[in-house]
Write a structure and sequence with these properties.
Blueprint: H1 3-21, H2 27-31, E1 35-36, E2 42-43, E3 51-55, H3 61-76, E4 81-87, H4 93-103, E5 108-112, H5 116-121, E6 125-126, E7 128-132, E8 138-142, E9 148-150, E10 153-154, H6 162-171, E11 186-187
Parallel strand pairs: 3-4, 4-5
Antiparallel strand pairs: 1-2, 3-7, 6-11, 7-8, 9-10
Amino acid sequence: MGKSFQLICLILCLSLGAHAQGSGISWKKISQISLKDLSGKTVQINGQKPTVFIMFSPECPLCRNYVPVLTDLQKSHPEIAFYAVFPGKAYAVDELKRFHKDYKPGFTLLLDQDKKLSRHLGATTTPESIFINELGIVVYRGLIDNWPSSLGQKRKVITDKYLASAILQSGLNRPVITKQTKPVGCLINDL
């Protein structure tokens, strides 16, 4: 084979591999977005390790019910940062404090009042999980698991734990089988 043919094959393989890994998110842009924590302090996220963002709403029953599941997942994977992001001006730090007091999540709660992070991530729904590796590649996005079958409808038995599976497969350096599902919940409002 000629060198030019080998070069073309190498370029094609590299571009297909990059496409197969998923879409990218700019950690640099995320690090420039100001969010507020429970104390009202401004924080930025640096992306130095794999991160799961979960879009949350304090009045969403699904979000409330997923707190123990996500807390257990965070405890099982301390190498991954977990953030519940509350998008929009409809929420205040006091609501995050009440949510924390009432539900005791084992992960960080952040307020995204200007929805800059939510827009950058392409988030549309609460709850919606977005798992990004340290390179900025979206490993998985969508449902936490298949418990909600549609808005207001829940399965009796959870058969697919999408987020947990993506974390496990990624940690084992295996391809993630399910890269995206359509989230079920309330649309992120414009407030």
